[in-house]
Specification:
alpha/beta, Quinone Oxidoreductase, Chain A, domain 1, Rossmann fold, 7-stranded mixed sheet, binds NADP nicotinamide-adenine-dinucleotide phosphate
Length: 326
C-alpha cells in the first residue's frame, strides 16, 4: 500500500485528494521505485490547481519529476537499491507521476543519480534544474561570453533561481529580472550582479531597443520576451523555456535579421537520455551542494493544493521539494 495525491474528475467535478492505494493500481512499466522526493514545478501547479489542461487522463498522480530507490526491475539496466531520478517524459500528465510514495516507469526514462548526489539534491534541482542547465549550456554553446551581461527573467522562480546560480558559478555577469523587487537580497545571494524590476521589460516593445544583453534565459514569454529580443546585442543568444507571463510573442523579425540574434527553445521533457545524463552530471559538478537554504522549501503531499495556487500566481520563491512520506 502507498499514499498518493490523486487528481480525479468523478461526475465531471475536479478533486485533488490524498488516497492510499494498492501496488496493483500502479501503471505498466518495468521499474518500480520507492519515491523519496518529488518537487513542485509550474506545470504541477497548473495540474493540481486544475488550470491549463495539463492532465490528459484521470485519475492521475501529478508530479513531473521524482527521485527514489528501485524496489524491483524487469530491466537489466536497474537493480533493487539503485538510486534513480526521472523528469519529464509526460509523467504527471499522461502517465502517473511523483507525488506518491511509489511510482512505476519505463526503464528508458530513468537515470541513475549523478555520483556524489542524493535524492534530495536531485529534487532540489528537478525539472527546473535540468531546464536551467540546458538553457545555460545553449547560451555557452552559442558563444555567449562571460564578461558581458546575461539576463534571466522570472529570476526568483524555480528555473530562474537555478539559472542565476549556475550562470554566477560559471562567472557570468547576471542581471536578474523579477516582479518581486523585495527579493533583491535573495537574488544577489544566488549570485546576481544586478537586479531589475520586470516592469522595465513589460512595456509595449519597439522592434529594436539599445543593445544590452549578450544572452538571456527567458522563463516567462510574451511581452517580456519581445522586449528581451529587442534589447539583445548583435549576435546575441536568447534561450526561451517558459510561459509564466503567457504563450504569445509579440515581436518582429528585426532582432533576427538586423542583429543576427538567435532564439533557441528548450524542451527538457523529451530531452534524449545521453544529453540528459550529461546535463545532470554538469549540474552536479557546478552545484554539488544544491542551493542556498533561502531557495529551498520543504513540503508534504497535503501542502500541495495550496502551494499549487501559489506557484501559478507567481508567489513561490526558488524550489519546493515534496517529501512524499509526509
Ligand atoms: N521548457 C521546459 O522544458 C520547461 C521546464 C520547466 C519549466 N518550464 C516553464 O518555465 C516556466 C518557469 O517554471 P518554474 O517551475 O520555474 O515556475 P515558477 O517557479 O513559478 O517561476 C516562474 C516565475 O516567473 C515569474 N512570473 C510569474 N508570473 C509572471 C507574469 N504574469 N509575468 C511575468 N513574470 C511572471 C515569477 O518570477 P519573478 O517573481 O522573479 O518575476 C515566477 O516566480 C514555466 O512557464 C514552466 O512551464 C519549461
Amino acid at each position: 500500500m502507498f499514499r498518493a495525491l490523486l487528481l480525479d474528475r468523478p461526475d465531471g467535478k475536479f478533486e485533488a485528494k490524498i488516497v492510499t492505494l494498492d501496488d496493483s493500481a500502479l501503471p505498466e512499466g518495468d521499474v518500480t521505485v520507492a519515491v523519496s522526493y518529488s518537487s513542485l514545478n509550474y506545470k504541477d501547479g497548473l495540474a493540481i490547481a486544475d488550470k491549463g489542461k495539463i492532465v490528459r487522463s484521470f485519475p492521475m498522480v501529478p508530479g513531473v519529476d521524482w527521485a527514489g530507490t528501485v524496489e524491483s526491475s524487469a530491466s537489466p539496466a536497474f537493480k533493487p537499491g539503485d538510486k534513480v531520478l526521472l523528469t519529464g517524459w509526460g509523467v504527471g500528465e499522461t502517465y502517473w507521476g511523483g507525488m506518491a510514495e511509489k511510482a512505476r516507469a519505463k526503464a528508458e526514462w530513468l537515470l541513475k543519480l549523478p555520483p556524489g548526489t542524493d535524492e534530495k539534491w536531485a529534487m532540489t534541482m528537478g525539472t527546473a534544474g535540468l531546464t536551467a542547465m540546458m538553457s545555460v549550456h545553449a547560451l555557452e554553446a552559442n558563444g555567449v561570453r562571460r564578461e558581458k551581461e546575461v539576463l534571466v527573467t522570472g529570476a526568483a522562480g524555480g528555473v530562474g533561481t537555478v539559472a542565476v546560480a549556475l550562470l554566477a558559478k560559471l562567472g557570468h555577469k547576471v542581471v536578474a529580472s523579477t516582479g518581486r523587487k523585495e527579493l533583491e537580497p535573495y537574488l544577489k545571494k544566488l549570485g546576481a550582479h544586478t537586479v531589475i524590476d520586470r516592469a522595465e521589460l513589460s512595456k509595449m516593445p519597439r522592434p529594436l531597443e539599445s543593445e544590452r544583453w549578450a544572452g538571456a534565459i527567458d522563463t516567462v514569454g510574451s511581452t517580456i520576451l519581445a522586449n528581451v529580443l529587442a534589447s539583445t546585442a548583435r549576435r546575441g543568444t536568447v534561450v526561451v523555456c517558459g510561459l509564466a507571463a503567457g504563450p504569445d510573442l509579440p515581436t518582429t523579425v528585426m532582432p533576427f535579421i538586423l542583429r543576427g540574434v538567435r532564439l533557441i527553445g528548450i524542451d527538457s521533457s523529451q530531452c534524449p537520455l545521453p544529453e540528459r545524463d550529461e546535463r545532470w552530471r554538469k549540474l552536479a559538478a557546478l552545484l554539488p551542494d544544491g542551493l542556498p537554504g533561502e531557495a529551498v522549501e520543504m513540503c508534504g503531499l497535503g501542502d500541495l493544493p495550496k502551494l499549487a495556487e501559489a506557484i501559478v500566481a507567481g508567489k513561490v520563491r526558488g524550489r519546493t521539494i515534496v517529501d512524499v512520506r509526509k
